[in-house]
C-alpha cells in the first residue's frame, strides 16, 4: 500500500510539472487550474499513506491551510452587484455599489480582488483590478474577460443583479505620492492592461484636480496611451447614459487620453499589431455599438488608427519635461519590452526615470 501510494505521488508530481508548462497553461488554463487543485489535494492523502515520517508535516500543512481559509473568509465581504454585457466584445462590466465610503477605504488604485458568488454551485471566480469611480459616485466597477459560453451568457442576461463576495484587496498599491512628484507621468496600457492603467491614471488626475502633489505642473504633465484592437474594447470605461452629467469624458477626467485602435489599421500596421496585442487580444468584431455612439462616448480623448509609435511617444514625453519622468505600463510582453528599451535610451542620457511595469498572469 505504501509503495503504491509513493508511485502515485511521484506520478502526481510529474503531472503537476507537465501541466505547469507555459504551453499547457496558455493552451487550456482550465486544465492547468483543475490539475493543480485536484493533484495537490490528492498528494496530501498519498503522502500520508506513503510513510509515517511525513505525517506530522502533512498535519502541519493542513493546519496552515485551515488558518489560511479562516483569514481569507475574515477578509471577504458580501455585496450585491450588477452585470452588464458589453456589446461587440467578450467583456462584462460588474458594478458593485458600496453602502458607505468606509467599505471603499481599503481599496487602492491598481490593487486586485478575487470576485466570487457565495454559495453558488459554480462560483464565478475572477482576479480583477480595483477601478474607483469619481468621488460623486460611490461604486466600484470592474472589467473582466469572459470566455465564450452561450449558457453563461444567457444566465448573465437573465439575472444581472447577483450577490457577490469580494476578497481582498491584494497586491502592493503603486506609490501615487512618488508619481505626483514627477514632472510628467506617462501611463501606457495594452488591451485589458487598462484595468490597471485606468485606475492609476484616474487617481493621479483626481489628485491633480484637488491640488495635491506638484500643482505647478501643467496639464501636459499627465497623459494616458491605450492600445486596443477595437474601440468597443474600451467601452467599459464609457459612461452610462445616467452618468453622463457626472462623467462627461471617456475616463471622467480632462487630462490627455489617446486611444490607438489597432484592429482597423491596414497595410504594415496590421502585421505589427499582432506583436502589440499578444495574448491579450479580446474582441473579434465591432458590431453591437454604432460608430456614432462610440465616437460620442470617447469624447475628450484622441482616437487614432494604427499601432502607437512608442519611441515617438516616449521622446515627446521626455522632451516636454525637464525633471523626473514616471512611466507606468501594463500590457503584452512585447509592448512592455519595446517601451522599456525606449525609456532606457533616455536613462542612459542621465535622465531620472521612475519605471513601473505591471504584469498580469494567466
How would you describe this protein?
This protein has 362 residues and is of the alpha/beta class. 40% of the residues lie in helices and 22% in strands. It contains 12 helices and 12 strands. It has helices at 2-19, 22-27, 29-50, 55-74, 101-104, 150-158, 176-180, 194-210, 268-277, 291-297, 310-320, 333-347; strands at 76-85, 91-97, 112-116, 126-129, 139-145, 161-170, 184-190, 222-228, 256-261, 302-305, 325-330, 353-358. The strands form 2 sheets. The chain has a 6-stranded antiparallel beta sheet with strand order 4-3-6-1-2-5. Helix 1 (2-19) runs antiparallel to helix 3 and helix 11 (310-320) runs parallel beside helix 12 (333-347). The radius of gyration is 23 Å and the shape is globular. 31% of the residues are buried. The model is unreliable at 121-125, 132-138, 213-220 and 265-297 (pLDDT under 50).
Write the layout of secondary structure elements.
Blueprint: H1 2-19, H2 22-27, H3 29-50, H4 55-74, E1 76-85, E2 91-97, H5 101-104, E3 112-116, E4 126-129, E5 139-145, H6 150-158, E6 161-170, H7 176-180, E7 184-190, H8 194-210, E8 222-228, E9 256-261, H9 268-277, H10 291-297, E10 302-305, H11 310-320, E11 325-330, H12 333-347, E12 353-358
Parallel strand pairs: 7-8, 7-11, 8-9, 9-10, 11-12
Antiparallel strand pairs: 1-2, 1-6, 2-5, 3-4, 3-6
Amino acid at each position: 500500500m505504501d509503495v503504491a501510494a509513493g508511485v502515485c505521488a511521484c506520478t502526481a508530481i510529474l503531472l503537476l510539472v507537465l501541466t505547469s508548462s507555459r504551453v499547457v497553461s496558455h493552451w487550456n488554463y482550465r486544465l492547468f487550474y483543475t490539475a493543480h487543485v485536484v493533484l495537490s489535494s490528492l498528494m496530501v492523502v498519498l503522502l500520508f499513506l506513503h510513510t509515517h515520517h511525513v505525517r506530522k508535516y502533512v498535519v502541519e500543512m493542513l493546519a496552515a491551510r485551515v488558518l489560511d481559509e479562516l483569514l481569507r473568509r475574515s477578509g471577504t465581504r458580501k455585496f450585491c452587484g450588477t452585470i452588464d454585457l458589453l456589446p461587440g466584445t467578450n467583456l462584462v462590466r460588474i458594478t458593485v455599489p458600496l453602502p458607505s465610503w468606509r467599505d471603499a477605504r481599503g481599496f487602492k488604485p491598481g490593487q486586485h480582488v478575487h470576485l466570487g458568488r457565495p454559495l453558488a454551485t459554480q462560483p464565478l471566480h475572477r482576479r480583477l483590478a480595483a477601478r474607483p469611480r469619481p468621488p460623486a459616485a460611490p461604486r466600484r466597477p470592474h472589467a473582466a474577460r469572459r470566455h465564450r459560453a452561450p449558457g453563461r451568457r444567457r444566465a448573465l442576461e437573465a439575472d444581472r443583479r447577483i450577490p457577490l463576495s469580494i476578497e481582498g484587496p491584494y497586491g502592493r498599491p503603486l506609490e501615487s505620492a512618488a508619481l505626483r512628484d514627477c514632472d510628467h507621468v506617462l501611463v501606457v496600457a495594452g488591451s485589458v492592461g487598462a484595468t490597471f492603467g485606468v485606475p492609476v491614471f484616474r487617481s493621479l488626475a483626481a489628485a491633480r484636480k484637488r491640488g495635491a502633489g506638484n500643482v505647478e505642473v501643467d496639464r501636459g504633465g499627465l497623459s494616458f496611451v491605450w492600445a486596443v484592437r477595437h474601440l468597443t474594447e474600451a467601452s467599459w470605461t464609457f459612461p452610462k447614459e445616467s452618468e453622463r452629467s457626472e462623467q462627461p469624458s471617456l475616463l471622467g477626467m480632462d487630462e490627455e487620453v489617446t486611444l490607438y485602435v489597432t484592429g482597423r489599421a491596414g497595410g504594415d500596421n496590421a502585421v505589427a499589431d499582432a506583436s502589440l496585442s499578444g495574448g491579450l487580444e479580446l474582441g473579434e468584431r465591432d458590431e453591437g455599438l454604432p460608430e456614432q455612439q462610440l465616437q460620442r462616448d470617447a469624447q475628450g480623448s484622441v482616437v487614432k488608427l494604427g499601432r502607437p509609435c512608442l519611441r515617438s511617444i516616449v521622446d515627446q514625453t521626455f522632451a516636454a519635461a525637464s525633471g523626473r519622468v514616471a512611466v507606468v505600463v501594463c500590457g503584452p510582453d512585447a509592448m512592455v519590452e519595446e517601451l522599456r528599451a525606449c525609456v532606457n535610451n533616455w536613462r542612459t542620457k542621465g535622465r531620472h526615470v521612475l519605471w513601473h511595469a505591471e504584469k498580469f498572469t494567466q
